[in-house]
Amino acid sequence: MSATDTIFALSSGGLPSGVAVIRLSGARSLQAVEELCGRIPPVRRASLLSIRNRNGNKLDEGLILVFPGPNSFTGEDCAELQIHGGRATVKAVLAALESMEGLRPAEAGEFSRRAFLNGRMDLVEVEGLADLIAAETEMQRRLAAEHASGGLSLLYESWAKRLTHARAMIEAELDFADEDDVPGSVASSIWRDMHALEQEILNHVADARTGEIVRDGLKVVIAGPPNAGKSSLLNHLAKRDVAIVTDIPGTTRDVLHVDLDLSGFAVRLYDTAGLRATEDIVEREGIRRTHLSMSDAHLLLLLSEDAQWTSLDGIYDGQTLRVRTKSDQVKTPWPEDGADVTISVKSGDGVSDLLDAIGRHLPNLEAGSALALPTRQRHILNLSTARENIRRAIEATNGLDIQAEYLRLAGQSLGRVTGRVDVENLLDVIFSEFCIGK
Ligand SMILES: Nc1nc2c(ncn2[C@@H]2O[C@H](COP(=O)(O)OP(=O)(O)OP(=O)(O)O)[C@@H](O)[C@H]2O)c(=O)[nH]1
Ligand SMILES: [K+]
Ligand SMILES: [Mg+2]
User: Fold this and answer.
1) How far is the CA of 248 from the centre of ligand 1 (A)?
2) Whose alpha carbon is nearest atom 16 of ligand 1?
3) Number of compact structural domains in the chain
4) Around ion ligand 2, which residues have CB less than 5 A away?
5) Which terminus of the chain is more solvent-facing, meaning fewer CB atoms within 10 Å of its CB: N or C?
């Protein structure tokens, strides 16, 4: 296996499908097209050609495109075979490709990896592309598109430039320190800018929680005593029978979740085991898991059918909505019950109010604004290290050269985010997020 092999893969989705796209990348891509189709079609233009194996048997007919490097997705010679998406057809064409010298099936993420190694994309763009392929809601799409198209990279590059400029000015001051005609305050405007940059990075990192919520979804945990109607609510909102519902208290033991799309945001809703003191070993394990899922919840829905609100002291101290359930059974309304929302999944009453209340916990993002938010722990760690080193540079009192060194380290951390600086050890992790053919 080698990075110089020509690779190929089915890049479109599951079969059968109307059209299937097989992608090739590497030095032998064009030659492979010639062997299959008898000739190399004009570049970057779809040509309808017959595809034959080496015995001359016609396998299919399809639109063939070639993209010579370096202006291709991977930077290498690439080709695309748009063929019929029947399983046997795709299998036959893949087999014909595999039989060719120097060609092999691509590994997961290998096309993107080559694009990165050939400078066609940086790491933030690569990660954005992975997110774009996985995006299921409008906000996930917008965030991923911003990253994939280089919006975030541009911001990080502008920061890196400011660091480089500051270092250059400090170097100049060091070089000419003995000469009288260099004003000693060259650096003062630089340090003002470094103060500003530190604050900008700080603000950006503070948005990480929003970025994570947009990318991974708002985690909403349904909790409360047994039989409060937790699983019924999950099923109602999911519009399918995900969880078992019975009138036996302690029915749910495992934590279940469903993904909802609320105003374009992903919301991950968790159903949990009812909270009560119990000697049942299985139920106790369920309650332990309930506590675990509460620990990283963004929002808790505390359910109760009789307004006896379970105490969360020492268990959970985040955002909570008190939800009174089974309103269809309540004959006389109970005004002072402390509930934020009252619902019945039987009649549907109050459910849209509940969704509105959950919606108020979603990030408040202006329509149409660029979503240049950090989304990954990898970004946050490197950005925080960069910020720390800028701070050290500002505060250092033991010489300009030490200060310049801290700025260099800050630039290096920024470089790790986009992949300009030693990230070799990270590549396997990042590209394994992709599926084959990407
Ligand atoms: N009338 C009425 N009954 C409801 C409503 N919601 C749930 N129930 C009933 O309440 C009982 C318990 O519902 P579940 O959804 O299993 O309650 P749970 O909180 O998940 O219970 P555990 O998993 O045991 O903790 C079932 O018999 C449901 O049919 C409602 O809005 N109205
Ligand atoms: K139950
Ligand atoms: Mg349940």
Assistant:
1) 9
2) 245
3) 3
4) 227, 251
5) N
Helix (H, G, I), strand (E, B) or coil at 45: coil
Q: Which residue range(s) make up the domain with 61?
A: 6-106
In terms of DSSP bridges, do strands 218-223 and 299-304 run parallel, antiparallel, or are they unpaired?
Answer: parallel
In a domain, 92, yes or no: yes
Best probe residue, ligand 1, of 221, 227, 283 (max atoms within 8 Å of C-beta) = 227
On whether residue 368 sits in a domain, the answer given is no
Ligand with smallest separation from the Cα of 273: 1
380 in the same domain as 304: no
| pLDDT for the residue numbered 334 | 63
Distance of CA 215 from the midpoint of ligand 3 (Å): 28
Angle between helices 123-134 and 151-175 (to 10 degrees): 170
Give the type of residue at 73: F
Last residue of a domain, one of 359, 392, 413: 359
CATH value at residue 406: 1.20.120.430
Q: Which ligand is nearest to the CA of 354?
A: 1
- Distance of alpha carbon 306 from alpha carbon 313, whole angstroms: 20
8 A C-beta contact, residue 379 and residue 417: yes
By most ligand atoms within 8 Å of CB, the mutation choice from 230, 232, 234, 256 for ligand 1 is 232
Nearest ligand atom owner, CA of 343? 1
Query: Who's near 43: CB < 8 A, 6+ residues apart?
Result: 66, 67, 68
Do residue 353 and residue 381 come from a single domain? no
Give me the interface pTM, i.e. the ipTM. 0.99
Which pLDDT tens digit goes with each residue over 252-264? 999 999 999 999 9
Q: What is the pLDDT of residues 306-341, one digit of tens each?
A: 999 999 999 999 999 999 999 999 766 666 789 999
What pLDDT sits at residue 158? 93
Read off the CATH number of the domain in which 261 is found.
3.40.50.300
The answer to whether residue 350 scores a pLDDT higher than 60 is yes
pLDDT of residue 186 exceeding 60, the answer is: no
Rounded mean pLDDT of 32-39? 97
Q: Residues 99, 194: one domain?
A: no
